[in-house]
Amino acid sequence: MARPVELLLLRNVENLGIVGDIVNVRSGFARNYLLPHALAEHPTPAKIELLKEARAKAVAELAAMRAQREQTIAKLTGVVIKLVRSCNDQGVLYGSITQRDIADALVAAGYAVDMRAVRLAAPFRRVGSYICTIQFDKELKSDVTIEVSADRALEMMQAQKDAEEAAAAAVEASEAEDREEMATKGPRRGKKKD
Asked: Which of 28, 40, 61, 102 has the fewest Cβ atoms surrounding its Cβ within 10 A?
């Protein structure tokens, strides 16, 4: 089993640490990703000292970003986003509503939400109302209601379709009744006159 490697981060690496952090990573991750991309190097006291200022700046930026995200989460509580999409008569969308669609709608509504913050188990494929979680950090999350509606009135089309089916059924019943009447009376024969 490979031993972990201790490295000093030269830049912020998502889900690993910020500039100036000393992290323990697997040797393959260090050899194949961090070192070739100049994201980290082996720590020395001189290098740690050089990165103190950059680390303080990164910590301040992270604090400002967290404060902004907390404000965004507070604003998102109870928000309803309406999306209009094309669909068939049964309400199945042509395409689907994805994380990008939701993030774009939230940004258009004035909320600073990145696509990676939108958490969806599966894309929305039907007209309806859905709950979507927006999560920045483990404890920074909020639920948003997404209402997907059709670009045309489905109810009118469904009512018209039902009326056409009812009319067709009435015509069919009338024809069936006429056939039954003909079958019970038999063919009409006229009386012969002498």
From this structure: 28
